[in-house]
Amino acid sequence: QRRVAWGHLVFFIFSLFYTGRQWTWRFNEFMRLTFLKVLLLALSSLYIPIGAATFTIFNCNTIECPAGTRIPSKGMSLVLNSTMGKCVPCEFAYNQTCPSSLQSMCLGMTDDRLETDMYIGCEGMKNFFWPAGGLVMIFFLLGVPLLFFWEIRASTRLLMDDFPIKELTQHDSETQAEFDQRRWETKVLMCDNSARFLFDAFEFKFRYMRLMLLIQKLIVVFTSVFVIRYGDLSPRFIVLGTSLAVHFIVSVVFIAFRPFLLNIHDNASAVLQSCLCLVIVVAIVIAAGVDVPSEVLTATMSVNFIVPGLVFMFGLVYYCFNRQREAKEAEDEMLRRAEIEAGLEDLQVEKGEVVCVPGEVQNPLTVSSPTITGKKRERERVRRIRIREKIRRDLQREMDDLREAQMDSDVHIDQRIQRLLRVFLMLGGAFATLALGLCILGLWSVQKTDLRSSVNNATMVTSKQIASYPDWPEFTSSCCCAASKSAVDLELGSTGPRDVEIWMCGNGVVQERIRSIAMYNSTSGKSYLVDGFSMRPMCSASFSSGCAVSPVTGTDMLTYGCTGQNIPQAPTHLW
Fold first, then answer.
1. What pLDDT, in 10s, does the model give residues 378-437?
2. CA distance 306 to 304
């Protein structure tokens, strides 16, 4: 609240000055003119990231762990390697007094888990998160293309029917389609409505091409995020093959139909799509295990980065040059029309016709006289200059009136877009509220992780160390221990937990106890192990002589240590 109050105070002080009010007005005008464009660009930019995140909710994979292994719990300290797969060893140590009902926990597991996070089960996603994701897909993934379709249809219809331009004449050799395309190019060049970026780069018959490019990106992202498995075929080849097919089809469309207004856009798009196809082909060859020379890889990466950069720079220069050329052509056209009008007036003078210039009374006999003195000739020259200036002012006034009418037409189109966006956002708010409510219910209903780790040994509470049991004997009699070993390579200097006890308890808790840690030696460049086996053997229910873990009376705290033995303090916390 203080920050809001300070903000209002600063804004009030800023508004006391003329310059501050002027900047505030400019900002409001800027937001009024550009808000719709920014909103449409934001929808277009967020479409692919939101679609990718939505697909991951439905991307489930069945994980099968054979006997002697189990699916790891979320947050487990074990470091898995490629040979372990997605299952962790689960073999109970001998000579334990754990209940027999827990022995089935290491007989194998089969469960559906999310592809992006194997610790999240799909069974808990179906009731709430899947319906929420379905609402997002209906509203956003299907709603945004429909919104763009309606905006393009409404905007282009108003543009072709109501947007004013200088009258164009259809040539005798020109078909109606060619004449409509020429009108389209002229109107697209002159308009400045909020939805222009959706269609201004394409020819009239390809004005919906932006939707095809949006669907193209969505298909590529879908196959990249949503892992598809088909028989023995690797999902990697499915993703790359689908991407290659999509980009190849789009490149063929660009080359065959050339949908853009400018040839440079057609050529640049075809080149970029071809570069993407080349990169995907190289990726497929690498995925197949073929040894690709480094020169080929370097050339491919160079093409992938240099060509788009060159196309962007050339396009930017061409755009700036084209805008200057169009402005100069408009000025030259106005001058040409002024000269033509002035020439017609001169012709009238030579024929003896009356030329009326405001503020001057002309004598027809003087104008039609065959002999004109020097003074009269000067008067004729002045008259012609005044005629040219009057014509130029009339042409400029005509252009200003035309531009004002075009701005009114753009405002009318923006108002139509506002109505469409208002309906879309109202429906989107309802869908988003329902999706958010389902997600909140899902978070409440999903069980928390059953794993409790002993990594933070500074917190010596029973809930963190012995799965909320009151003392060590009851913990060992209610839980079964399985010894596990992380994929920590001491020769390579890896660090982290090495030997880990996984205690599976009758209360549903999986208590993880780290027994050894790999530490890095900067002198040798290798790692060495620090363990607590001198205090208690691996998965043993009994401590060494003189060592014990005892509860603190009246609290849920534990104390641990050894008496009469010289055990280093560092390994002691790995009990």
1. 777 777 777 777 777 877 788 888 888 888 898 899 889 989 999 999 999 999 999 999
2. 6
pTM of whole model > 0.85? Answer: no
Average pLDDT in the chain? 79
Instruction: Measure the N-to-C terminal CA separation of the chain; round to a whole number of Å.
Output: 50
Instruction: Decide if 83 contacts 28 (C-beta within 8 A).
Output: no
Residues 240-275: pLDDT tens digits? 898 999 999 999 999 999 999 888 889 888 888 888
- How do residues 35-83 score in pLDDT, each as one tens digit? 888 888 889 889 988 988 898 888 888 888 887 777 777 666 665 554 4
d(CA 507, CA 490): 36
Sequence-distant (6+) residues with CB within 8 A of 547 are 535, 536, 560, 561, 562, 563, 565, 567, 575
Q: Are 158 and 193 in contact (CB under 8 A)?
A: no
Q: Which residue has the tokens 């996070």?
A: 117
Residue 495: in which H helix or E strand, if any? none
Q: Say which residue, 279 or 553, is predicted with more confidence.
A: 279
Pairing of strands 526-531, 516-521: antiparallel
Pairwise CA distance, residues 381 & 366, whole Å: 14
What is the reported pLDDT for 456?
45
559 φ, ψ to 5°? -125, 150
The closest of 297, 301, 218 to 52, measured between CA atoms, is 218
Q: What is the pLDDT of residues 521-566, one digit of tens each?
A: 888 778 888 888 888 888 888 888 778 888 877 777 777 777 766 6
| Rounded Cα distance, 406 and 247, in Å | 38
DSSP secondary structure, 240-302, as one string: HHHHHHHHHHHHHHHHHH--BSSHHHHHHHHHHHHHHHHHHHHHHHHHTT----HHHHHHHHH
Residue of 447, 542, 513, 354 lying closest to 127 (CA atoms): 447
C-alpha to C-alpha distance for 295 and 304, rounded to whole angstroms: 14
Taking the C-alpha atoms of residue 438 and residue 135, their distance in angstroms, rounded to an integer, is: 10
Query: What distance in Å separates the CA atoms of residue 568 and residue 519, rounded to the nearest whole number?
Result: 15
| Positions of E strands within 437-573 | 451-453, 479-485, 496-497, 499-505, 510-514, 516-521, 526-531, 547-551, 558-562
